[in-house]
């Protein structure tokens, strides 16, 4: 009796992926997003059809955005499950590179199976092949190397016996988690091989929880015990570790206020008494005051990115930094005292080591003042005939949603506004801000809804991001994946216009349509556009109608797109305007050193003054 099975390399790959399981009994790779071309239709396309009853195929409209949907799914599942994407050779592959970078920066699992050139080189150059005149081994897929955690090129059918387990080992490793790319030569996809039967035995992938080093734990515990005013900066690692409840208990027991990064927001519900709000450039007055006064800053699952730290200006120069992180690379940033380990088990071990330690009481009044300021900023407008601010739009959506709602976004004004103003329940916030990729929003909302079908998904997107990538609305309509898009139209790139004029001292140019060198201002009918793809689309004349439409959308089985015109005014999040309280911190965006304009020279002088406040890198 034979102990092998003869399959094409592509068939073997899909068969193997279909039996890679989670401890809960689900497929770890929950299907493959696919756009077919000559580089993957004959091999991978045939294999996906052959196994369509056990391994789902998801059709996208653009290779980048279908990968965004897959990434949002993995983020929504807290990295416990993932999806794969396949593309053809050439532009199909390079379209995915941006998404790969997004997954890499955000430490999110994604399996990329990109069609590649012929391994036998017979039809050389094949259609869409990128040639390196000095290196015959290079193809367009080499672009994936700097943005993949694992990269392999499949030039023989037996290579998948080794490449596939390595890819999933990377994706399920909490320290090295990120995108794995298999550049799959298109002729090899169709070649047959006698694969060992046991290769297709179901395998369960367990995500490890590394314990902290005993000596590191002891050093950090002693640092905390001597601190009077510590603060916690909680990042995405808290959520990926499923340490939300542990963090809340730790903060409460030891009396330490918590500030949240974009990725860490909603690890604690906004109602948690130790949640002081957002950290950094787009942070709350309460959180940033606690951070600025802290004698010890404890990072949990954060990279201490520039928005989180006010470009290194937020913490006192004599404040000690501690970084609890799954990877030593991140734990050592900013010269922090490293504590490498899983966030959940590390916090559990740390609270045991701290015993009955309790810090000075944080400023609860400052937290309440900030929350009241948010309520004022997000209140229903007195004049409904005037264009609302983004904050008033957020307030209307917040009033109309339920406790199950997840607000999601990625780029433009809304990330800073939502980080500051949205009051989520636990798990009620999904932001892609590691790469801040315009165009993630609509596709990401679809992937997030697949990951959390029981929750209401609200996608905030500006007109600029919507114009970049909106086609997955059609995919969501085809699949009956309902979510709500709140499209705020300020007629241009309002966020960067503010940075250009208020942040860097420039003149308005090439961001708002009115400031572009064009004959006619675009009059884009976003309602008609979304409706043409099958969505329910409506224009809200004011925030009252917006609230009503948000509620009505919950009964639909297709996406709802609600368009509302907004005013392109300055907003909390730039560190310049403080309508919701004195909160903003400096963000280091280089200002020209030489200019003929006095305004620009004044901004440069202020820039140099702010840069001087930054903590030096260690």
Describe this structure in words.
With 618 residues, the chain is α/β, with parallel strands linked by helices. It folds into three domains: 4-204, 3-Layer(aba) Sandwich (Rossmann fold), CATH 3.40.50.970; 214-367, 3-Layer(aba) Sandwich (Rossmann fold); 378-565, Thiamin diphosphate (ThDP)-binding fold, Pyr/PP domains (Rossmann fold, 3-Layer(aba) Sandwich). Helices cover 36% and strands 17% of the residues. The strands form five sheets. A six-stranded parallel sheet has the order 4-3-5-6-8-7, with helices on both faces. The chain has a six-stranded parallel sheet with strand order 13-12-11-14-15-16, with helices on both faces. A six-stranded parallel sheet has the order 18-17-19-20-22-21, with helices on both faces. The model is unreliable at 572-583 (pLDDT under 50).
Task: List descriptors.
6-stranded parallel beta sheet, 3 domains, Rossmann fold, 618 residues, alpha/beta, 23 helices
Describe the secondary-structure layout.
Layout: E1 4-8, H1 9-17, E2 20-21, E3 29-34, H2 41-50, E4 57-59, H3 63-76, E5 82-87, H4 91-105, E6 110-116, E7 150-154, H5 160-171, E8 179-185, H6 186-189, E9 192-196, E10 203-204, H7 214-225, E11 230-234, H8 236-240, H9 244-254, E12 258-260, E13 275-278, H10 285-293, E14 296-300, H11 306-309, E15 320-325, H12 328-331, E16 337-340, H13 343-354, H14 364-377, H15 390-400, E17 406-409, H16 413-421, E18 429-431, H17 440-451, E19 457-462, H18 463-468, H19 472-479, E20 484-489, H20 494-503, H21 526-532, E21 536-539, H22 543-553, E22 560-565, H23 598-611
Parallel strand pairs: 2-10, 3-4, 3-5, 5-6, 6-8, 7-8, 11-12, 11-14, 12-13, 14-15, 15-16, 17-18, 17-19, 19-20, 20-22, 21-22
Antiparallel strand pairs: 1-9
